[in-house]
Design brief:
CATH topology of one domain in chain A: Arc Repressor Mutant, subunit A
Number of strands of chain A: 3
Largest sheet of chain A: 3 strands, antiparallel
Helix content of chain A: 55-70%
CATH superfamily of one domain in chain A: Winged helix-like DNA-binding domain superfamily/Winged helix DNA-binding domain
Strand content of chain A: 5-15%
Radius of gyration of chain A: 21 Å
CATH architecture of one domain in chain A: Orthogonal Bundle
Distance between the termini of chain A: 41 Å
Largest interface: A-B, 64 and 64 residues
Number of helices of chain A: 8
Structural class of chain A: mainly alpha
Oligomer: homodimer
Chain lengths: 159, 159
DNA sequence: AGCGATTATATCGCACAAGATATAATCGCT
DNA sequence: AGCGATTATATCTTGTGCGATATAATCGCT
């Protein structure tokens, strides 16, 4: 016979929005992106485009696949995004002469110049956020660990 | 004259993808949503739709604005999402008789029934994730705090 | 060399997101 | 009562995201 039905983990309760891990992740991601937006639109960039540029600022040129692995985005998202960056004159897209399947993405002069213009963004974001730096670091560490876990786990699920 | 230019926080370095807080947030949010997907598509739901349903399972009916405040989504996102849920017979949309500007969203019988069908999802996600529960709790707490901070802060920036 | 399997991008369709703007109903003040 | 301001949704446009599929180039094996 069922006895201690009184106390928690009853399944209905677990469906409360406030109990979810995913929701604050999802909401915080969108809100933080919104705070980036006014800083980025000065240069005509969206947040995902900024991610791609950060990858290219570290190493250029990069193949589409390399960018996808780093940003965790597939070609169906990257192709149009990269075409927009190309139209803005920020990057070039060139087929690799050695392997014609590969499209190499390289920064233009303008794209390189954007790096120094964007250099103030991380600091400015930190100021605008005004979130306790210690907590931000703790959060980032946990998130990085969680992301590593998810990446390792994702391959399980694709199998 | 500039002297100690050698050591860190030089601005260029801060643009490294690995230094960013937003990127793991953004990436983890998308990866986690992907893990939800196979569980949700059994019931023809997307993750944002599931969020809205969790809100309605706690309290029905709700106005569009109430849902928007809870889910942090605006009408331009909610209106089409809610219309799709209506077409699926999960919710109804009715103008409030007292105030015709307000559209009240209520669960249908089917929508209510989905709650018990979805009851297993939180537990199943936890199992599938296999992420250290203590770390998950710590992460959620930090995220909740960060989200509260962002919400409070967002209003500053909208001003 | 020949050809099926693999790989790298691209395309298509659908569903968010969010700013800007439109529309209609209600409120508040005189 | 009248009317400008506010409020609640809806619509339009642009830009992601992502599953499914298409296409073209390369690889691997015989």
């Amino acid at each position: 016979m069922k006895v201690a039905l009184a106390t928690p983990p009853d399944t209905a309760t677990l469906l409360d929005l406030d109990k979810q891990l995913c929701f604050p992740l999802y909401a915080a991601s969108r809100l933080l992106t919104r705070i980036y937006q006014p800083l980025l639109e000065r240069y005509g960039l969206t947040y995902p485009q900024y991610i791609v540029l950060m990858i290219l600022w570290e190493k250029t040129p990069c193949s589409v696949t390399e960018i996808g692995e780093r940003a965790l985005l597939n070609s169906n998202t990257l192709t149009p995004l990269l075409k927009r960056l190309e139209q803005q004159g920020v990057i070039t897209r060139t087929r690799d002469s050695g392997d014609e399947r590969v499209v190499m993405i390289a920064l233009t002069e303008h794209g390189r110049a954007l790096k120094s213009k964007c250099a103030c963004i991380p600091t400015e974001m930190q100021q605008r956020l005004g979130f306790d730096p210690d907590k931000a670091i703790a959060l980032k560490q946990l998130l990085d660990e969680f992301l590593r876990h998810l990446r390792a786990h994702a391959s399980d699920h694709l199998a």
